[in-house]
């Protein structure tokens, strides 16, 4: 080994050489040549112990920083790709006393190097500034910037308002009506009854099984709120770049690609890139924060030529997917339209590239063959207006209707989940009909089928087919089935199906007739193969108006009646569990009794009305200053008042009609 002083002399000597090739006027090819020569000299010096491995690696680091453009170049003449591997090999090795070459750099030590960390920080900052400078849409949640993990409170709720922690909207959800009290330090405190005229006798007297966990004067987290499950982006961002001590193939490629200090190898870098490609955007993987000069150039060009594509550029093509290419993403996955769109983003906030032969934009994703004959506009409409991206619905969210739920699980959900078992006679029906009074949960059931079978959910009202897309309803039906076929398994929910499949009348409009015919053709599966997993769920409040041919095709006709007492109780308990409520068991029973004849939607409305009671009892001045914790709990008195404002929406005569039709055509009880 050399003495420190002589090593210092050597280093400065070598640095002189290094500075000799930093000319600003030298063409790239010459620089590359000089660089190569210099690398060889260093290699040679190191191999002959003239230069210590530490000095050599410092020099390599300097070269790499100075010549990143050359190092990253794909050009065989001017790039250093063919040399970089050996440079790296050398940088990682040292000669042991035994004369054997051993690894001098471990994966973890590389990541601890100040220069590597500085580069990674710089990369982070660069990315941050790029995203900051771009329009807000550039921040594709979960893709472009890995979010900070939401803080999950002990109660299971999330203190952050990150989309991942948004409460699942249950049956009673409606825009503007929060499902749960905000969680936070205050929420754990007992409420302060500021309105002494409105005290709740049962505040400190929990009752029966209802007191816990549903009601009671204790702030609760929303039990149904999904746990803050970190998405892919968060998951990847939290992964250590290289697990200390590990030295597998992943580690090596991460090492090569981690920062310019040791990342001399473009092939190695691209290997690392390929490794991360499969699992998500590159920046979220082991190479987070680092951009090669080439990538940086590409980003700059994107900004210049495709302002709208900045977001995608900075997330390294996060939206590269063709419609039919992948199986269902479930009903919550973000859809990527299969056809290129005009510039300017889409309704879903996504960003599409406009084909531009001159620009460096990526080629448009391949269009699914089955969609080629369709108008892109139609497909767009289906994606934005018909495809449902709502929160998941579970069977427990639907109170009552046990028979219908059991039947649906058996004939629809299981066959969709296990098409291999449910074949032949056990094969699922193509269409089912849910009929019954309004607001009994037919739509909820449709959503639940899709959620539980992992299917994509398309929801359309038949009347909008005939009115909204005047003259195009027929094409719309065809397009809807075509898209559904690409998104299998799929559930197509058609509300008010009676208006689509009503019995022929003399004054029937030609276009309505055509839509109906097209629908029946599609339902018959003339264009579908027997393996296709598309279920049509029709819902109607007027089953008697459906024509015979259509009725025959909707083989399972399930009556969805008004909720019975148990179901009404369940709805109240469920909705009140998310609120401050001090209803006693016997009071709850009174509410259940008095709501006989109410539909599920009526029950929800009743609870909403009752929930406004405590607010109404406040003075306007109090309302301006009160904290959420100080709002008095919902009491039976509020329900009493609510009963005078909410009436059942279904008349007994209507009910008779449904029951008669059920006896005649229904499948079940
Ligand atoms: N069985 C039920 N369990 C829980 N909530 C219900 C139930 N039925 C209805 N609701 C509540 O009523 C709302 C409306 O229900 P939904 O839209 O599913 O009824 P529908 O039968 O499809 O009505 P319509 O026939 O008018 O379209 C739901 O969002 C939910 O809040």
Give the SSE layout:
Blueprint: H1 4-20, H2 28-47, H3 53-66, H4 68-72, H5 81-92, E1 93-95, E2 101-103, H6 107-112, H7 114-133, H8 208-211, H9 232-238, H10 249-257, H11 266-277, H12 293-305, H13 310-314, H14 376-386, H15 402-417, E3 431-435, H16 442-453, E4 456-461, H17 462-467, H18 473-486, E5 490-495, H19 497-500, H20 510-524, E6 534-540, H21 548-553, E7 556-559, H22 565-576, H23 585-594, H24 600-616, H25 620-625, H26 636-645, H27 652-665
Parallel strand pairs: 3-6, 3-7, 4-5, 5-6
Antiparallel strand pairs: 1-2
Helix pairs in contact: 1-3, 2-3, 3-5, 10-11, 15-16, 18-20, 22-23, 22-24, 23-26, 24-26
The structure holds adenosine-5'-triphosphate.
InterPro entries: AAA+_ATPase, AAA_lid_3, ATPase_AAA_core, ATPase_AAA_CS, FIGNL1_ATPase, MT-severing_AAA_ATPase, P-loop_NTPase, Spast_Vps4_C
Cofactor: Mg(2+)
Region (Disordered): 150-188, 333-368
* SS strand fraction: 5-15%
**CATH uppermost class of the domain at 395-559:** Alpha Beta
In helices, the fraction of residues equals: 40-55%
Mean of residue pLDDT values: 63
Structural class by sheet pairing and helices: mainly alpha
Strand order of the largest sheet: 4-5-6-3-7
Give a verbal description of the structure.
The chain is mostly helical and 669 residues long. Among the domains are: 4-105; 395-559, Rossmann fold, CATH 3.40.50. The protein contains 27 helices and seven strands. It has helices at 4-20, 28-47, 53-66, 68-72, 81-92, 107-112, 114-133, 208-211, 232-238, 249-257, 266-277, 293-305, 310-314, 376-386, 402-417, 442-453, 462-467, 473-486, 497-500, 510-524, 548-553, 565-576, 585-594, 600-616, 620-625, 636-645, 652-665, and strands at 93-95, 101-103, 431-435, 456-461, 490-495, 534-540, 556-559. Strands 4-5-6-3-7 form a five-stranded parallel β-sheet, sandwiched between helices. Strand 1 (93-95) and strand 2 form a beta hairpin. Helix 2 runs antiparallel to helix 3 and helix 15 runs parallel beside helix 16. The longest helix is centred in the first third of the chain and has 20 residues, at 28-47. It binds adenosine-5'-triphosphate. Residues 171-172, 398-401, 438-444, 495, 539, 541, 563, 567, 571, 600-601, 604 line the site of adenosine-5'-triphosphate.
């Amino acid at each position: 080994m050399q003495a420190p002083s002589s090593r210092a002399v050597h280093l400065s000597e070598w640095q002189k050489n290094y500075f000799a090739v930093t000319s600003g006027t030298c063409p790239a090819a010459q620089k590359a040549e000089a660089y190569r020569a210099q690398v060889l000299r260093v290699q040679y010096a190191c191999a002959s112990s003239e230069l210590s491995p530490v000095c050599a690696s410092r020099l390599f680091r300097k070269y790499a920083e100075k010549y990143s453009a050359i190092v990253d170049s794909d050009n065989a003449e001017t790039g250093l790709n063919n040399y970089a591997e050996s440079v790296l090999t050398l940088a990682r090795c040292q000669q042991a006393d035994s004369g054997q070459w051993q690894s001098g750099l471990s994966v973890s030590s590389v990541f601890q190097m100040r220069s590597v960390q500085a580069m990674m920080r710089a990369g982070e900052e660069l990315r941050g500034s790029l995203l900051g400078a771009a329009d807000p849409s550039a921040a594709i949640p979960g893709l472009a910037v890995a979010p900070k993990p939401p803080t999950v409170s002990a109660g299971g709720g999330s203190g952050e308002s990150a989309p991942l922690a948004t409460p699942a909207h249950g049956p009673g959800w409606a825009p503007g009506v929060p499902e749960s009290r905000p969680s936070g330090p205050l929420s754990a405190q007992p409420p302060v009854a500021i309105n002494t005229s409105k005290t709740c006798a049962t505040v400190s007297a929990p009752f029966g099984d209802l007191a816990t966990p549903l009601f009671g004067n204790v702030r609760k987290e929303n039990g149904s709120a999904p746990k803050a499950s970190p998405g892919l982006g968060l998951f990847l961002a939290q992964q250590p770049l290289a697990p200390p001590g590990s030295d597998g193939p992943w580690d090596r490629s991460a090492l090569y690609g981690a920062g310019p200090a040791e990342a001399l190898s473009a092939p190695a870098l691209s290997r690392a890139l390929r490794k991360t490609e499969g699992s998500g955007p590159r920046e979220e993987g082991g190479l987070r924060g680092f951009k090669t000069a080439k990538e940086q150039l590409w980003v700059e060009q994107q900004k210049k030529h495709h302002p709208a594509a900045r977001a995608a550029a900075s997330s390294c093509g996060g939206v590269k997917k063709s419609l039919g290419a992948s199986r269902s993403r479930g009903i919550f996955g973000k859809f990527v339209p299969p056809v290129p769109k005009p510039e300017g983003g889409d309704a879903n906030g996504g960003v599409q590239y406009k084909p531009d032969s001159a620009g460096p934009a990526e080629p448009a994703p391949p269009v699914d063959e089955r969609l080629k004959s369709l108008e892109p506009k139609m497909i767009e409409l289906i994606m934005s207006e018909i495809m449902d991206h709502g929160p998941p619905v579970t069977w427990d969210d639907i109170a009552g209707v046990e028979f219908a739920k059991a039947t649906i699980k058996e004939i629809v959900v299981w066959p969709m989940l296990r098409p291999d078992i449910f074949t032949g006679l056990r094969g699922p029906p193509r269409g089912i009909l849910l009929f019954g009074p309004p607001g009994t949960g037919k739509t909820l059931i449709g959503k639940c089928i899709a959620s539980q079978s992992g299917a994509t959910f398309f929801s359309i009202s038949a009347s909008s087919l005939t009115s909204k897309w005047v003259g195009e309803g027929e094409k719309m039906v065809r397009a809807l089935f075509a898209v559904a076929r690409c998104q299998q398994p799929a559930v197509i929910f058609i509300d008010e199906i009676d208006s689509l499949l009503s019995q022929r009348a003399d004054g029937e409009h030609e276009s309505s007739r055509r839509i109906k015919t097209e629908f029946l053709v599609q339902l018959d599966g003339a264009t579908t193969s027997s393996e296709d997993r598309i279920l049509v769920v029709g819902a109607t409040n007027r089953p008697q108006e459906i024509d015979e041919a259509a009725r025959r095709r909707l083989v399972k006709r399930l009556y969805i009646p008004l909720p019975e007492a148990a179901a009404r109780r369940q709805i109240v308990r469920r909705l009140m569990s998310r609120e401050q409520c001090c209803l006693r068991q016997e009071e709850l029973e009174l509410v259940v009794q008095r709501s006989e004849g109410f539909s599920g939607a009526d029950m929800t409305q009743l609870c909403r009305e009752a929930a406004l009671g405590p607010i109404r009892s406040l003075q306007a001045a109090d309302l301006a200053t009160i904290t959420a914790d100080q709002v008095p709990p919902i009491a039976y008195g509020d329900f009493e008042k609510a009963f005078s404002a909410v009436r059942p929406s279904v008349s007994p005569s209507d009910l008779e009609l449904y029951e008669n039709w059920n006896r005649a055509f229904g499948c079940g009880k």
